Amino acid sequence: MTITPTQASAQAREICELAPIVPVLVVHDVAHARPLAEALVAGGLPALEVTLRTPAALDVIREMAQVEGGVVGAGTLLTPADVKAAKEAGAKFGVSPGATDKLLDACEAEDLPTLPGVATSSEAMKMLERGYTMLKFFPAEANGGAPALKAIGAPLPQISFCPTGGVSPQNANSYLSLPNVVCAGGSWVAPSDLVKKGDWKAIEELAREASQLSR
């Protein structure tokens, strides 16, 4: 089964609309997967991006995919092999730091809605030309932050974004207030020290605070 870019963007947007923040998760121990996902979902953040940056990542996705109410995706998709492995592990969406034709071909062939990463207006136009209208803006802060994304939105109002990279509780509202931003990706809702300690209540509270950010 295949998915078209238009369908991919529509489905990715639906996932992005579930909450103002998508947790960006780097999980090293699969034993943390289920309680972490349960805490984030209970706090009001159902869309979860598990980055493929650790050996445990695919097993983490498998565990989180079983958590009721959660929608688990795979981040840091770099190759067609990543896409296939993520889909087989149970990922419902994908996120990439950038975008190549080979990667997008694989996502479409695997029927995996994906947020392709862009950093410039030219890259955004290339994705729009292919049919993608829901994109990741990365790395957001390093690329000029909310003012840069606002400027890109002026000539490209048909594109919506999920900014990621340097988004924090202090600047999240500056992004979420933009008309071309649907949600933002952030790692602060699952800090490594709390994950290591297994302080799921504290993580649930951080998620609850993030879920109440206005957009």
Automatic annotation (TrEMBL):
What this protein catalyses is:
2-dehydro-3-deoxy-6-phospho-D-gluconate = D-glyceraldehyde 3-phosphate + pyruvate
Task: Name the Enzyme Commission number(s) assigned to this protein.
Answer: 4.1.2.14
| Residue stretches in coiled coil | none
Listed GO molecular functions?
2-dehydro-3-deoxy-phosphogluconate aldolase activity
Q: What is this protein called?
A: 2-dehydro-3-deoxy-phosphogluconate aldolase
Q: In which pathway does it act?
A: Carbohydrate acid metabolism; 2-dehydro-3-deoxy-D-gluconate degradation; D-glyceraldehyde 3-phosphate and pyruvate from 2-dehydro-3-deoxy-D-gluconate: step 2/2
**Keyword Transmembrane helix set for record:** no
